[in-house]
Amino acid sequence: MNNLLALDPGSDKVGTAVLSYTKEEKEKTIVKKEELLDHLAEIFNNYQIKEIIIGDGTGADSVKEMVSSRYSDLKITMVAEEYTTEEAQARYLKEKPMSNYEKLLRKVVSWKLKKPLDDYAALIIGEKYLDKLDKID
Q: What are the angstrom distances between the C-alpha of 33 and each of 7, 8, 13, 91?
């Protein structure tokens, strides 16, 4: 079965997500930028990837250059990634609710979640791309 690979590039790290064309999440993780190509080799060994979707934010150009040099035979699409960080945080909190202490901190001192969510953002980037494909069909 064909899948797509979505990437959320940042300055130092990259969120990766593999999902099917029916939006089934296969895997997601965060890797250091210098480890990206090794990680992608593992993904390509485990999944049939048809195309790569890259969020157009910070670090996107360098990641696109890295990926396209290794996987030039695949379609690589840049997509807008506005609001993916907020959506990633909302999804994370839905899947892993905060403790009462964390909720109190959030109210009292405008505490924000400090966990990196690039993997969730990559998943959302992939889902948004698939949503656009559905509208075209």
A: 11, 11, 5, 24
Per-residue pLDDT in tens (0 to 9) along the chain, 137 residues: 799 999 999 999 999 999 999 999 999 999 999 999 999 999 999 999 999 999 998 899 999 999 999 999 999 999 998 888 889 988 888 888 777 777 776 666 655 666 789 999 999 999 999 998 876 65
Domain ranges, ordered by start, for the chain: 2-110+117-136
What pTM does this model have?
A: 0.86
**Is it true that domain 2-110+117-136 has CATH number 3.40.1550.10?**
no
Lateral strand order in the sheet of 25-32: 25-32, 13-20, 2-9, 48-55, 75-79
